[in-house]
Amino acid sequence: MTAMDLVAFDSAWDRLETWLASHSPADHAALRPPAADDEIAELEDGLGFALHPELRRLLERRNGVTEPERSSGSGAAVFPAGGILPLGHRLISTVDVAEMHKILVDIGEDNSEAELWDEEDLAGHLHQCVPFAVPNDGGFAFVDHRPGPTYGHVYEMGIGSGDLEGTLWGAHLAEFVDAISHALETGTPFTYYWPSIFEHPSGRTCVEWHVRT
């Protein structure tokens, strides 16, 4: 990973934030401030390995998003600002990254004991996968930290729906963020997820994604 690679990520992230600020200010306002150096260091200490440089840079730019506005009765989100990624994935903070990684480790250990996959499968290395966003259905978007050709790959795994094979969303975070920005700017799909605008009765709006096959 070179300095130029981080320049590419910064460019992609600036592109995304510029679009949000202009077209979806509620989503832009939901982005939390950067993670502090000691927060990132504590996360890496718990993981037992260094973050991929692009994932570190993401946390240095934004430490997740704020919680969505929820109704007092059902607890359901009534204004889901911050779900800027497909499937309503929301960026998570360093604290949540650590917690979600522990869940992935547990899932990997449980299914390894049950011999549900081969060791070379992605699902056999969940302890080397670091989440950066989560939806509402128990899945994860994560960065592969296995040494080798897949290092830095971005995957989505809908664990809540029983998907343990994972779907490749990008060769690295810069590519993924750039693709999301392009979809938002042009109204065209990212894979089979189409961006649209959710309109709240109050008149506020935020990004929403729909599946079209």
Please tell me about this protein's structure.
The chain is 38% helix and 19% strand. With 213 residues, it is α+β, with helices and mostly antiparallel strands. It has a single domain, classed as SMI1/KNR4-like (3-Layer(aba) Sandwich). β8 (193-199) and β9 (205-211) form a beta hairpin.
Short description:
This protein is an alpha+beta fold and 213 residues long. Helices cover 38% and strands 19% of the residues. It contains six helices and nine strands, in the order ααααβββαββββαββ.
CATH architecture: 3-Layer(aba) Sandwich
Strand order of the largest sheet: 3-4-5-6-7
Radius of gyration: 17 Å
How many structural units, i.e. domains? 1
Topology, number of strands: 9
Task: From the structure above, extract its key features.
single chain, 213 residues, alpha+beta, SMI1/KNR4-like, 5-stranded antiparallel sheet, 6 helices, 38% helix, 19% strand
